């Protein structure tokens, strides 16, 4: 019996309902160009296609059902695949026959667009068939294939559709025939195929798929000239303008993968690569590969991750830069990158139970990932800034990617369906089971069923997390069963205590996880975390945050927004002796916890003062202010206004 998790949580069910009732239908209309919306370029770049999606029409043309040309990015197919994957997870939770029928028709359309030899890629089928697999740093052919494999496995497992699995296997077989030491000895510019092949291996048991995924990882970076040599041989115009100008580190191609120790290049590519590394390391018991991706993890978490779980410090290449370079108003923090970081954390947890992996997953999930979607499920951020002044995003070319309100859709639309598939599959992240140990990793109201030594174990989790510190686990066994329940202790909790059947249970947490081991039958385990308002300093090497603090409560990072605190947020500071007050507001932003604090406001220089600079004053009169902070994930839902996460604090 596979473990079964059913989420019935007030906080998360709201978002999952948004995915099912709003995001999936809305995205379907966008993919079919059936809705009149404004599609924004994610930054000032006229080469970004933003007239329409055309993604479904591309498949119709490739299948010979329509005539016309391909429109959009060469990776536009992946928008459809991620939509299909989100549908699969949604149907797993709630079987909607009308949605299933629609998804079945999409599967049939994809199969019709597949070529006889197994090749699948609408751009090259329609426009340039002679260039298949000849410009892999830009073509995203294997990237799209990986996303289709992920969607195919999810849809097959959800509804038993054999066509989708057969189509995915036919595509994987095509790739296997074309890649290898005596064939194309290379890989895609954007990692993803490795994740898809590992999933396809799990459901089919075909070891050649696992071997192919490992091959793509092991040869990455062994020939840094592979992409440039392919491009020279191709001899034609780039498929994506400018990509050939980036260094090899942008593609994680600068050195053999097992030698890489820092997070380099395009942030999404990097975390997809690491997700595959951790996954394939677990499947093949490859300790060297696991240790290699753990080194990159350390660099991300210790030196290159924002407090919101965002990654990617620059708009140029949507990339990492250097250690401690974490600007708040020019960063990138792409939604997809945080989604990928969550994938990475989960795969590491599946290798070993270390609480930090769940901590980072939780941080990225409750903050950057959730911030990627508006509360209506129909507007989306590509970029997730930590500081916003709307006029700068409009007039400063270096900040054109920083939006103050979420667009209806994006020219590069990878983020909305990526977020949808994550939220729709959230039950996969709540518990991780290894043999007779069940780890409670995320906290939410849900029912879970597990099998331990042939016995069925039911665990009912009850909580009002993330607003409340109490989590209760009700364990019910068919017959008495000895196993271990692990509970992640979040790194924001200074203390905790556990009760088992009303009695204090003494346990020391190991690597951030507390373990309750006993012979279970009908038992109640309750844990209370010390959930209070915390203030955080950044490492002194993060130059942007000197004399500034961030505020959090539980897993949620908070921010100031202009609508609550007035304009010129940079003139506000927290009183160093303030006592924070917390309250839950049902009437605000769909129901959120807010934090109030005492602060100060520095007077703005009068606009009538014509002097750009004035002589320094040792003492500046400030006035006391009440400040209100809201959860970062909820900002940008009340119109265009300033926002700030890191706040000055009077020392």
Question: How would you describe this structure in keywords?
Answer:
single chain, 9-stranded mixed beta sheet, alpha+beta, globular, 18 helices, 651 residues
Task: Record the SSE blueprint.
Elements: E1 4-7, H1 10-31, E2 39-40, H2 55-62, H3 77-93, H4 97-113, H5 122-126, H6 136-139, H7 141-159, H8 162-178, H9 193-204, H10 207-219, H11 226-234, H12 267-284, H13 287-303, H14 335-351, H15 355-371, E3 387-388, H16 390-395, E4 409-410, H17 415-424, E5 431-434, E6 437-440, E7 446-452, E8 455-463, E9 470-488, E10 496-500, E11 503-505, E12 513-529, E13 533-536, E14 548-553, E15 556-561, H18 562-565, E16 572-574, E17 581-585, E18 592-601, E19 623-631, E20 643-644, E21 647-649
Parallel strand pairs: 2-4, 6-9, 16-21
Antiparallel strand pairs: 1-7, 3-20, 5-6, 7-8, 8-9, 9-12, 10-11, 10-12, 13-14, 14-15, 14-21, 15-19, 15-20, 16-18, 17-18, 18-19
Give a quick account of the main beta sheet: strands, pairing sense, barrel closure: 9 strands, mixed
Helix content: 25-40%
Low-confidence stretches: none
Spatial extent as radius of gyration: 25 Å
Count every beta strand, where a strand is a DSSP E run of 2 or more residues.
21
Shape: globular
Mean pLDDT, rounded to whole units? Answer: 96
Structural class: alpha+beta
First and last CA, distance: 58 Å
**Beta-strand content estimate:** 15-25%
Q: Report the total helices.
A: 18
């Amino acid at each position: 019996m596979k473990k079964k998790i059913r989420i019935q949580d007030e906080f998360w069910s709201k978002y999952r309902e948004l995915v099912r009732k709003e995001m999936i239908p809305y995205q379907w209309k966008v993919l079919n160009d059936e809705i009149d919306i404004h599609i924004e370029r994610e930054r000032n770049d006229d080469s970004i296609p933003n007239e329409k999606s055309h993604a479904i029409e591309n498949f119709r043309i490739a299948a010979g059902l329509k005539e016309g040309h391909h429109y959009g990015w060469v990776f536009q197919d992946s928008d459809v695949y991620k939509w299909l994957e989100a549908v699969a997870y949604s149907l797993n939770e709630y079987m909607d026959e009308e949605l299933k029928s629609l998804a079945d028709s999409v599967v049939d359309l994809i199969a019709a667009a597949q070529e006889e030899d197994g090749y699948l890629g609408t751009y090259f089928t329609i426009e340039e068939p002679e260039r298949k697999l000849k410009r892999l740093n830009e073509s995203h052919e294997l990237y799209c294939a990986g996303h289709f494999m992920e969607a195919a496995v999810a849809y097959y497992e959800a509804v038993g559709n054999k066509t989708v699995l057969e189509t995915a296997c036919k595509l994987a077989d095509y790739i296997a025939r074309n890649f290898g030491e005596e064939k194309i000895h290379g890989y895609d510019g954007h990692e993803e195929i490795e994740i898809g092949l590992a999933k396809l291996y799990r459901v089919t048991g075909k070891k050649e798929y696992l071997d192919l995924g490992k091959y793509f990882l092991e040869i990455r970076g062994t020939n840094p000239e592979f992409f440039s040599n392919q491009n020279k041989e191709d001899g034609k115009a780039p498929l994506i303008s400018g990509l050939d100008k980036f260094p090899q580190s942008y593609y994680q191609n600068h050195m053999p993968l097992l030698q890489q120790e820092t997070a380099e290049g395009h942030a999404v590519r990097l975390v997809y690569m690491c997700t595959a590394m951790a996954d394939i390391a677990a499947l093949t018991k490859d300790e060297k590969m696991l240790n290699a991706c753990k080194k990159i993890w350390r660099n991300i978490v210790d030196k290159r991750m924002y407090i919101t779980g965002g990654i990617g410090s620059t708009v140029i290449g949507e990339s990492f830069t250097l250690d401690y370079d974490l600007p708040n108003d020019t960063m990138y923090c792409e939604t997809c990158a945080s989604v990928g970081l969550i994938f990475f954390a989960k795969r590491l947890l599946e290798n070993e139970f270390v609480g930090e992996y769940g901590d980072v997953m939780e941080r990225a999930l409750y903050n950057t990932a959730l911030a990627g979607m508006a509360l209506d499920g129909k507007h989306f951020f590509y970029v997730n800034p930590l500081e916003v002044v709307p006029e700068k995003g409009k007039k400063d070319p270096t900040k054109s990617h920083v939006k103050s309100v979420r667009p209806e859709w994006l020219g590069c639309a990878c983020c909305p369906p990526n977020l949808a598939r994550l939220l729709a599959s959230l039950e996969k992240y709540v518990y991780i089971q290894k043999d007779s140990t069940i780890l409670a990793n995320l906290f939410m109201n849900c029912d879970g069923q597990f099998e331990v030594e042939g016995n069925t174990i039911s665990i009912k989790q009850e909580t009002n997390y993330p607003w409340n510190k109490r989590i209760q686990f009700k364990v019910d066994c068919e017959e008495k069963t000895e196993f271990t329940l692990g509970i992640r202790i979040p790194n924001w909790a200074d203390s905790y205590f556990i009760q088992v059947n009303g009695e204090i249970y003494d346990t020391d947490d190991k690597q951030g996880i507390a373990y309750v081991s006993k012979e279970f039958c009908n038992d109640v385990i309750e844990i209370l975390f010390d959930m209070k308002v915390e203030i955080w300093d950044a490492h002194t090497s993060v130059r942007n945050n000197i004399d500034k603090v961030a505020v959090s409560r539980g897993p949620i990072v908070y921010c100031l927004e202009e609508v609550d605190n007035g304009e010129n947020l940079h003139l506000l500071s927290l009183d160093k002796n303030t006592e924070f007050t917390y309250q839950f507001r049902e009437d605000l932003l769909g129901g959120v916890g807010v934090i109030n604090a005492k602060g100060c406001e520095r007077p703005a220089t009068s606009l009538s003062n014509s002097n750009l600079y004035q002589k320094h004053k040792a003492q500046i009169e400030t006035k006391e202010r009440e400040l209100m902070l809201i959860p970062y994930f909820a900002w940008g839902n009340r119109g265009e206004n300033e926002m700030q996460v890191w706040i000055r604090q009077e020392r």
